[in-house]
Specification:
This protein has 669 residues and is of the alpha/beta class. The protein has 3 domains: 27-90 and 281-537, ANL, N-terminal domain (Rossmann fold, 3-Layer(aba) Sandwich); 127-272, Rossmann fold (3-Layer(aba) Sandwich); 542-668, ANL, C-terminal domain (GMP Synthetase, Chain A, domain 3, 2-Layer Sandwich), CATH 3.30.300.30. The protein has 21 helices and 30 strands. The strands form 8 sheets. Strands 12-11-8-6-7-14-15-23 form an 8-stranded mixed beta sheet, with helices on both faces. A 7-stranded mixed beta sheet has the order 5-4-17-16-18-19-20, with helices on both faces. Strands 21-22-24-25 form a 4-stranded antiparallel beta sheet, with helices on one face. Helix 16 links the parallel strand 19 and strand 20. Helix 8 (187-197) packs across helix 9 (217-230). The longest helix has 17 residues, at 129-145. The model is unreliable at 1-7 (pLDDT under 50). The structure holds adenosine-5'-monophosphate-propyl ester. Adenosine-5'-monophosphate-propyl ester binds at residues 285, 333-334, 409-412, 434-439, 460, 521-523, 535, 538, 544, 548-549.
Length: 669
């Protein structure tokens, strides 16, 4: 079934494990009231949501502010879903203005902590809903003054500063879709995304703090702008937040300081009345072919689904001194949905932290939890594995008793990491919600509910309300529990992607062609005899590095664009911290000699082309890539070699993998 498939034997052993953790008896008391308190309640509501999704979602949508009510809840004309048709609303209004209008303007909306410490103290900024409304309105007016209109795509490439949240909400306020690019991506990645989205405005920072160093964001934007200019896609405006005060180049007419532009604007800016199906944002993500694709999300369905999942999955309750913290970067979908859009409507403050988990030392996250009395904490398995490696003493130094719910996302969590999280961070009192979802799904699709679902390490458990998930074979037939297959979602949900920007065919081919009549997320999975879902990993040529998606082909084309490389094949390999690391098999030009130096150069080259997260962990030079007689690269063989099944200590010598391939082929045929 699988090309870059997961190691099924480890899944088998996980499946056999079967430890069950019931929600703590005092959970409801600890969170100030659990929304869903038993499996009975979950099942009843789930059944209703599946039998009559339109009534279910209409009830949820009625809890939001609308400028004009919708006429039809859902139109599903595969592959196109349209939700709350005819309705007019605005997500920025529902995140911020609504709280002010209802008398909560002085409550904390965003709590931000900077990375640098002075005298042992970090900089902390708190924004109430009223302050946020003012800041957002002012920046919305800046954008308008720069000529940004409803429908124009604004590119955002920033560090984790409050201005990032303000910029995205300002875009939403005026109906300009944002395209946020993770600050770890390269100038090439910026240029590619700007061209694809036909964007003319970039919002950035001079630099971003990361582990005490400055990431030169503006330099990267300048490089991208030069390239864009050469290719006839010139950027009109670059708006720069002064954060690190690092030296930067300045292009008059194009570059503007955020704080200068803000001097001349009004404090008020009305929210644009957005059609339910107007585009809210584009977010680029890797696929198995070609360049990253622009995933399109629209206004109302995304707004409702992210807010309601955040409420139930993290049990967000206003007036309970809750402080919610998701450690993701806003540049990824987790940050979009579960730092900003899904959290603010629930009137629980959302914490943003600027920097690295080990700055100035490995206890930083736990000092943040203690300082802000964090109640809900949401992170990734790769981070948990790093914490384990650093040792529990860093957590033990701090008071973590405020924690109520722990979450994980991004990749399957290994049971050891789950147990460590449960014991050391949760102190055996906090349910762990292992949330399965994707950039394309907008919000959680398969996840425990903390007050109801008994959990088992490694399983994301059961579908959220309205999610008709199944494990099927290639024909779309459901397979028996215990059998591996393709994960499929049989009905649309409000925050399903609406398309791949500018590429209708890729949208259809990727998500709606493999299994007829259903959404196919690209993951393999199994259900156990309780019906719990166990994600086995991607079944396409996408690897999940530290919970971030990378197309192996993207890394291959980056390698091949280097003058010394003729051909490259990239596969995933087990990695202690990242979960999956990147192994590259490279064939060199005749003039190029394999060497440690060239290896380092190739790694840097990939970082320049894509970003540091795409740097191969292992490079092996080979005379030729092992191929089948029909010319297909034997990826399974490469995966075996990369994962250490066949090791050769001297990694810089040219290996004749074709010989091995020939042996394998005769073995297999
Ligand atoms: O393979 C699944 C894995 O991450 C993919 C989605 O990646 P991305 O769009 O970058 O979004 C990551 C954050 C939502 C999925 O197709 N994945 C995500 N969450 C889990 C997971 N695998 C197992 N368990 C999870 N909880």
């Amino acid at each position: 079934m699988s090309q870059t498939g997961p190691d099924t034997s480890s899944i088998e052993s996980i499946l056999k494990e079967g430890r069950v953790f019931e929600p703590p008896a005092d959970f409801s008391e600890r969170v100030g009231g659990s929304y869903i308190s038993s499996m009975d309640e979950y099942r009843k509501l789930y059944e209703r949501s599946i039998k009559d999704p339109e009534a279910f979602w209409a009830e949820v949508a009625a809890q939001f502010d609308w400028f004009k009510p919708w006429e039809t809840v859902l139109e599903w004309d595969l592959p196109d879903a349209r939700w709350f048709i005819g309705g007019k609303t605005n997500i920025c209004h529902n995140c911020v203005d609504r709280q002010v209008n209802n008398g909560y303007g002085d409550e904390a909306a965003i709590i931000w902590e900077g990375e640098p410490m002075e005298g042992g103290k970090p900089e902390i900024r708190r924004y109430t809903y009223r302050e946020l409304q003012r800041e957002i309105s002012r920046f919305a007016n800046v954008l308008k003054a720069q000529g940004v209109k409803k429908g124009d795509v604004v590119t955002i490439y920033m560090g984790m500063v409050p201005e990032l949240a303000i910029a995205m909400l300002a875009c939403a306020r005026i109906g300009a879709p944002h395209s946020i690019i993770f600050g770890g991506f390269s100038s090439q990645a910026i240029a590619d995304r700007v061209i694809d989205a036909d964007s003319k405005t970039i919002v950035t920072c001079d630099g971003a703090w990361r582990r005490g160093k400055i990431v030169p964001l503006k330099d990267n934007v300048d490089e991208a702008c030069n390239q864009l200019e050469r290719s006839g896609n010139a950027i009109k405006n670059v708006i720069v937040v002064k954060r690190c005060k690092n030296d930067i180049q300045w292009t008059d007419g194009r570059d503007h300081w955020w704080h200068e532009l803000e001097k001349n604007v009004d404090d008020e800016c009305p929210c644009e009345e957005m059609d339910s199906e107007d585009m809210l944002f584009l977010l680029y993500t890797s696929g198995s072919t070609g360049k990253p694709k622009g995933i399109m999300h629209t206004t109302a369905g995304y707004m409702i689904y992210t807010a309601v999942t955040a409420r139930y999955v993290f049990n967000l309750v206003p007036n309970q001194d809750q402080v919610y913290w998701c450690t993701a970067d806003i540049g990824w979908v987790t940050g979009h949905s579960y730092i900003i859009y899904g959290v603010l409507p629930n009137r629980v403050p959302t914490l943003m932290y600027e920097g690295a988990p080990n700055a100035p030392d490995e206890s930083r996250f736990w000092s943040i939890v203690e300082r802000h009395k964090v109640t809900q904490f949401y992170t990734a398995p790769t981070a948990i594995r790093a914490f384990m490696k650093w040792g529990r003493e860093h957590a033990d130094k701090h008071d973590l008793s405020s924690l109520r719910v722990l979450g994980t996302v991004g990749e399957p969590i290994n049971p050891e990491a789950w147990m460590w999280y449960h014991k050391v961070i949760g102190q055996e009192k906090c349910p762990i919600v292992d949330t399965w979802w994707q950039t394309e799904t907008g919000g959680h699709l398969i996840t425990p509910l903390p007050g109801a679902t008994p959990t088992t390490p490694g399983s994301c458990t059961l579908p959220f309300f309205g999610i008709d998930a199944a494990i099927v074979n290639e024909k779309g037939e459901e397979v028996p529990h215990g059998t591996g297959g393709l994960l499929a979602i049989r009905k649309p949900w409000p925050s399903i992607l609406r398309g791949v920007y500018g590429d209708r065919q890729r949208f259809i081919d990727t998500y709606f062609s493999r299994i007829e009549g259903m959404y196919f997320p690209g993951d393999g999975a199994k259900r156990d005899d309780r019906g719990y879902f166990w994600i086995m990993g991607r079944v396409d040529d996408v690897i999940n590095v530290s919970g971030h998606r990378l197309g192996t082909m993207e890394v291959e084309s980056a390698l091949v664009s280097h003058e010394s490389v003729v051909e490259a094949a990239v596969v995933g390999m087990p990695h202690e911290i990242k979960g999956t690391g990147i192994a590259a098999f490279v064939t060199l030009e005749a003039h190029a000699e394999p060497s440690e130096e060239l290896m380092a150069k190739l790694r840097e080259h990939v970082a320049r082309e894509i970003g540091a997260i795409a740097k191969p962990d292992l490079i092996r030079f080979t005379d030729a890539l092992p191929k089948t007689r029909s010319g297909k690269i034997m990826r399974r063989l490469l995966r075996d070699i990369a994962s250490g099944t066949d090791t050769n200590q001297d990694v810089t010598t040219l290996e004749d993998l074709t010989v091995m391939a020939k042996l394998r082929e005769s073995d297999e045929s």
